[in-house]
Structures are given as C-alpha cells and as structure tokens.
From TrEMBL:
GO molecular function, one term: calcium-independent phospholipase A2 activity
Record organism: Verticillium dahliae (strain VdLs.17 / ATCC MYA-4575 / FGSC 10137)
Keywords associated with the record: Hydrolase, Lipid degradation, Lipid metabolism
BP terms from Gene Ontology: arachidonate metabolic process; lipid catabolic process
Cellular component terms (Gene Ontology): membrane
Keyword check for Hydrolase: yes
Protein known as: Phospholipase
Length: 805
C-alpha cells in the first residue's frame, strides 16, 4: 500500500507509506529522470489491463472485493532506465460494500488525521479526493474502467462531478491538468461508438453538475476494448496502452512549457508535502513553489535587509546602476540554488518575493541616507546578514558562504577552500587565502577561562598541562571551537553586565599617582553618549553559563557541546575589595543594586554547575589555595601559583580523562545518503572521518598514539574494530571508516582506550533525523549553500538499485 484511509463515520486518517521514496530512490538517475504518473481506477478489469500493458501483476484480496480506501504504487519495470519512468498508481473508488482499512498501519507508514472530514456524508468524498486533489497535480492520465465501477458510465459521471466540485486545487497552469481516459467493453467498438459514449458522458456530467461541460471535451477520451474472447490480453489492451502513452506525451509537453515537469526526486518531495496539505486544509490551494521552499524558506528579514540596503543610495543613480543589480542577482541565487526546480521566474517572484519587496520599496518604510549624501557608503553593509566574514587585501569583505562556494576546493582536505581572487573587483590576491570550515555534523569544544589578574598564570599552566598530556604536535585550536574569556581592560555597560563592575586591584601594592593618564587621553570620561559607561570589568568565577549562551547562539542545532572545559584561577572568595565609585546614580547603578545582580548571576553559575556537574562532558579544572587566594595584582606570588598549578596531583586524573575526550572529538560521522525506512528502522550507511588529514602535522603521531593505547571504535556499545585497522583508511591514506546504520533513529559512536570508559566522538550520540538536516540530504530543492547536496544514489550501483525495486 502507498496511500490509504483509516477510520469510520466522520473521523478519517490518511496513511502514507514510504513506497514512493523507495521506488524513486532506486531509479538509476532520480535527479534527472522525469516520470509519468498514470492512475488506474477499477477492479478486476483494471488488474488484467495493468498486467497486460505494463507487466505488473496485482494480488487480488482474498474476499474478491478490492479495497476502495487503498492506492498502490508500481513502477513499470521496462521503463526504469528510461528518461521517462512510468509510475502506476492503482486503486478503487468508494462503494458501500468495500472493506475498511484496519486502524493499524504499516511500520514504515505515517498516520495523519484529516481535520476537514468532521461532516456527515464524507465517505464518498474523502475517497474520491485522494485522486482528484492529492494525485491530480502530478498525474498525466486518469484511466477509469467502467466495467469495474458501480453504475458503469453513470458511476464515472458521478465521480467526475464530485471532482469538479472539490478539486483539483493546486496552482498548476490550466493547460497542464491531467486528462481522463474511460475504458469500456460494453460500448459499441469503433470511432462512432466511442464518440457517442463520450457525448453521453458529458450529458450525464452536465446533469450532475448543472454547468456547461463542452470545455471538458478536450480532457476526456473514450477507449473501447473487445469483450473476453479468444484474443489475448496483450492484444486486447494494446490500443489502450498506445492511447494512454500518447495522451501522456501531450500532457508532459504542456508541463514542459509551463515549467512544472518534475524529476523523480522532486515528485517524491512534492507529493510528501501534498499529503500534509491534503490532511490539514481542504480549501487552500496547494502551492508548488512554496512547498519547494519549505526546508529552505525565504529569510524573514529580507524586507528589512532590502530597506536598509536601498536606503543608503539615491534612487536616481546608485539605485539603478548598483542596488537593483545586486538585489536581483541575490534573489536569483536564493531562488535557484543547485538542485532547485526551474519554476517560471514570474511564479517564483510573485509567490516568494513580491509582497516583501513591495513593502520594502513603499514610501512609508524606505529610510533616507544617514547623512543625506548622494553616494553609496562603503561601510556597514556587511552587517545586513549574520554570518562569518573574511576581509581581503583588496578591501572587500566576503561572507563565508561565498568564499566556500566560489573558492577552489583543496585537494587535501574537503573542508578547506582556497581563495585567490576577489569576485567583486577581480583582483588577484598577493597570497591565496586558506579558509577552513567546520564540518556540519561535527560538534563543538568549549574552553572557559576565569578572569583573575595575575592569577591568570594558573589558567596558562593548566592549559600547558592539557597540551602536554595530549602529546601531539596539534594546536589546541584544532580541538576547540570556542574560547570564552572574561575580565577585559574595559567593558561597555548597558544594563545586563552591570553586576560585573568592581575594581580589580585594591589593597595590595602602591601605584604612582599618574598611573592611567595615557588611558585617559585615549578615553575621555567614563561615559560616552549613546554608547555606554566604561569601567574595569571584574572577575567572574566559572562563566560556563555565559559560554553556553554563546554556543546556543552560534550553533542553534547543537544539542550539547562535545566537552566544556572550565579552567579556574584558584578558588575565589570575596576579600578586601574596596567599593566602586558611583558613576551614574546610587539607586540604579550603585554598589547595592550591582551586588544584587551579581548574586543572581552567581546563582546562575551554580545552577550550571548543578546541571553539568554530573555529566561527563563538563570538566572543571582548578587549584585550591591554603587560606585566602592571592590578590589579583600580587605579582610576587605568580611563581608560587604557577608551581601549584603545574604540580597539583588532583588535576592528573581529570586531565587524563579530558585528553581522551578531546582526542575522540577529532572524529566525526556523516551519512552517505538518506537512510531508508525498513520495518520501522532506519537503514543505511555512513562514514566516520577525522578532522586531521594525512598531509597535516600530527596525523602519524595521532594514530600511532591511538594504536599504542589500543583504542577501539565502539558502535552502539559493541566494539567494531581498532582505530588503526587497515579498513579504516582510504587509498589516499586518510582515515575513513564505513559504518552501517540500522537503528530506530539514534546512533552512538565512541572510542574506547583499553579498559577505560568510552568517549563519544564529535556530536555523538546522533539523532539520524538531525544528521539528515545538518547534511541537507532532505533539501532536494537546494539549500542556501551553492554546492549541490549529496545525491541519494551517488554510492549505489545500478544493479543494486534494480534489485531493490
């Protein structure tokens, strides 16, 4: 079963199996093959014709009565390697004696409640609308077998009348609608008999609908077949097959002209969205353009971006010569990324951008230039989009996406691109820029450093111990994505950071009176109008909460970091800190309000400790002083503090465990293709990779260390093989281990060193659906990155795909 209905009275569910995706994914070229969908409606005669015309044999139900609530999908086997594969959907229409689909559905199917069926007398309508509303936007031909339907020709007229009243509803061009073929063995054979039957059908249809039906004549054809005689079934239905394929050719040409002939991959995705639309809304038309952008929507802030961009130039000059070409090319890149269907540009513009641009260019929302100048300023435009930027020697700034899409991929590392020319001014750079990108399925390592004046020597010594424990010539920056530090020389004060404003240096040592004069010359006063107040920011113990907030903002799809290392400067307690001078009012910014806010922030830090303290991903490394810790400006104690951090035995075991976690974080996992659902499980393959490539310094040392320490790959708790196994390396010598996926949606991959506790690789444990999203495997209509997604059949041989179908 492909589609079905389940329920009784006025409560129905739509059941959708994975049959369509299974069929299309096993075509040899699903991204370029454009299938034809032929829908056959009937019972026994339909089954005989389907086998005679296309070689598809259907098993009849034991009761002999076809299920009116089920639609099955087949692929004509002789067309699977053609540019036009033929998909065959077959089922029966509603009748009062049909069996009811059970309330349970296959494991690989999903169930959706049809919310618009809470009315009386919906049995016939909901069954018919599976064809007229759900399948009509994609079908070339509907073939009705009169001999199998209640009432014969009158039954066909009743169903077509229902279709005219309730569907199809999709934004298809008028000349791209499917056509109808009516098959009968009781009508007089020949051209005259077929013409008379067609006239009778139109008359019945006009009587049922009470509307003019002459315009429907071009969409309806009649085919008569010989009764069951000595003629073979193949000869009996040869004329019907020829008529169906000829009509399908005409409909396909109309869809080519209307730019709505889709590839097999796109058909599967659009029909999946059409099922959701069918169950949720009965009156709204199904928008093909909007559905194609469901996983890659137009940015919500496009209107504000265009308003800000155009408002910086004059409409008479830069608007035409600069602003409009930039906006037009940007919209074109957004509308047609690699893999997108080439819809009519007018339909795309009207459906996606027209309303936003009309509002952006309205007089009410268009701002004037900041200084009334008549030239397009060269600064500030990079702030229109939140992304990573790279400044080139020519003075232009490029976002990471453009550098990644238009740079030259490195032959040594798939996540490194080389950028040697500015694409805005065509200037050749004096030195080719090397840009490294974070793999989308890799996790994030976080280091948090406490502030603390001269006590920062403790953090530095602990960092040194970590690097020495790793024993590899690999910089710490390859393990860590985010470094988070505090206690800067100055801080901008608005409202939230006020609790961090305390003088750092009090009570120890003598300072000359003229200290700080050079800073005063650079920063006059303690408050800058429209910017904020500036004071020395105080230390914050264990700023994990703030660091995790930054991680969430930068990596919104990340469930949790691979590891969070919080390095202290010694256990901190309030000492003889002097009061800070009130700069902007005692009630709002005095010591008491700031102490109150500081208290609540410290409580937040304690909550983070309570939340992460029991997790193996959080590591707090600190030393403990006997008595009060040294003051922040007590320079003579630096040697003693450094010695304490270097030799503290309490740090040995935590650093050893952290080393194993950091080494495991160098490995990540990617799916090879979109997994298939089989028996309620997700089945497929993936690849475990290493961020350190063979050409890099430290690669040989890394795997020598892992091999010496007997490190094994553990998948879902079961050992797979050693990291240094010969099957773990490709022909180029880089680490690449194939891993089979067979789970209910969750996968764990870890490295186990000897008998120690296993450490998850980067981002493990994995949610399979999230991996699909991160890699864009389900973005069949393209994504914002201009590199095409990995094809679902890229690693599958034609023989394997043919066998699977």
């Amino acid at each position: 079963m492909w589609l079905g209905l389940s329920g009784c009275e006025n409560n129905y569910d739509l059941i959708v199996s994975n049959r369509l995706r299974l069929v299309t994914s096993h075509l040899p070229r699903p991204d370029t093959q454009r299938p034809s969908l032929v829908v056959l409606v009937g019972g026994r005669a339909k089954s005989i014709a389907l086998h005679a015309m296309f070689g598809v044999r259907i098993a009849q139900p034991a009761t002999g009565s076809p299920g009116s609530n089920e639609i099955h999908l087949h692929l004509a086997p002789q067309t699977s390697f053609h540019e036009r594969p033929v998909l065959l959907a077959e089922g029966h229409l509603y009748n009062s004696h049909a069996r009811v689909v059970p309330t349970t559905c296959p494991q690989d199917a999903r169930r959706q409640a049809i919310i618009w069926t809470a009315q009386s007398g919906m049995e016939r309508r909901v069954t018919g609308e599976l064809y007229c509303r759900l399948l009509a936007p994609f079908a070339d031909v509907f073939c009705f077998f009169c001999d199998d339907l209640d009432g014969g020709l009158e039954g066909v007229a009743r169903h077509l009348a229902t279709w005219l009243d309730h569907g199809p509803q999709a934004q298809n061009p008028a000349n791209a609608h499917p056509k109808i073929v009516v098959v009968s063995s009781t009508v007089l054979h020949g051209v005259q008999g077929e013409a008379k039957a067609k006239t009778d059908l139109l008359a019945m249809l006009e009587k049922e609908t009470r509307r003019e039906t002459s315009n429907l004549s071009a969409y309806i054809s009649f085919v008569t077949v010989l009764p069951h005689t000595s003629v073979s079934a193949t000869a009996r239905y040869r004329a019907l097959k020829e008529r169906i394929m000829r009509i399908s050719d005409d409909v396909r040409q109309s869809r080519v002209d209307a730019r709505c002939l889709f590839s097999a991959t796109h058909v599967a995705a659009l029909l999946d969205g059409a099922c959701d639309h069918f169950a949720s809304a009965s009156d709204l038309p199904f928008d093909l353009v909007q559905e194609s952008r469901r996983r890659n929507p137009v940015p919500e802030n496009l209107e504000s971006h265009v308003t800000e961009f155009v408002g910086r130039g004059t409409p008479q000059t830069e608007l035409v010569t600069f602003a409009m070409p930039v906006i037009g090319s940007s919209l074109f890149l957004d509308a047609y990324p690699p893999g997108a269907h080439l819809f009519d540009p007018v339909d795309v513009f009207e459906g996606l951008y027209s309303d936003m641009l009309n509002r952006a260019f309205s007089n009410e929302s268009m701002p004037l230039g900041r200084d009334g100048s008549t030239c397009m300023p060269s600064d500030g435009l990079i702030q229109l989009v939140k992304a990573h930027f790279y400044g080139l020697s020519c003075g232009h700034v490029h976002c990471e996406a453009c550098v990644w899409d238009y740079g030259r991929p490195s032959d040594e590392d798939p996540w490194v691109t080389l950028y040697g020319q500015c694409h805005l001014c065509d200037t050749l750079l004096s030195e080719e820029a090397v840009i490294r990108r974070h793999p989308p399925t890799a996790g994030v390592g976080v280091f948090c450093l406490d502030g603390g004046g001269v006590r920062g020597i403790v953090s530095l010594e602990i960092l040194k111990r970590i690097h020495e424990a790793i024993k590899l010539p690999i910089p710490l920056t390859r393990f860590i994505k985010i470094f988070f530090g505090i206690s800067l020389p100055v801080a901008t004060i608005d409202k939230k950071p006020l609790e961090r404003i305390f003088t750092n240096y009090n009570g120890v040592g003598k300072r000359p009176r003229n200290q700080g004069r050079s800073r005063k010359r650079a920063l006059v006063g303690s408050h800058i109008y429209d910017v904020g107040s500036f004071q020395d920011a105080g230390p914050l113990v264990d700023p994990t909460l703030s660091a995790l907030c930054e991680v969430t903002a930068l990596f919104p799809l990340l469930v949790e970091p691979d590891f969070v290392v919080s390095i202290g400067t010694g256990e901190s307690q309030p000492s003889n800190a002097a009061a800070t001078e009130d700069l902007r009012g005692v009630l709002g910014n005095g010591a008491v309000p700031r102490l109150g806010r500081l208290f609540w922030e410290k409580m937040g830090d304690k909550k983070v400790k309570q939340m992460l303290g029991k997790k193996s991903r959080h590591h707090r490394l600190n030393v403990y002083f006997d008595g009060d810790e040294p003051m922040l400006d007590n320079a003579p104690c630096m040697a003693e503090m450094g010695e304490r951090a270097r030799n503290d035995p309490l740090l040995t075991e935590p650093i050893a465990y952290l080393r194993r976690c950091m080494l495991a974080s160098l490995f990540y996992f990617e799916l090879d293709a979109l997994p298939e659902r089989c028996g309620g499980r997700l089945v497929g393959t993936g690849t475990m990779l290493c961020t350190i490539r063979k050409s890099e310094l430290g690669f040989q040392d890394l795997f020598l260390q892992l091999s010496t320490n007997s490190v094994q790959i553990v998948v879902d708790g079961s050992p797979l093989c050693g990291v240094n196994d010969l099957t773990c390396f490709d022909r180029g010598g880089n680490f690449r281990k194939l891993i089979k996926v067979d789970s209910h949606g969750r996968l764990e991959i870890a490295l186990r060193e000897g008998s120690a506790e296993p450490c998850h690789i980067s981002r493990s444990p994995f949610a399979i659906d999230q991996l699909v999203t991160l890699q864009g495997l389900d973005a069949v209509f393209g994504r914002r990155a201009c590199r095409k997604r990995k094809s679902a059949c890229a690693d599958t041989s034609p023989r394997k795909r043919r066998a699977a179908v």
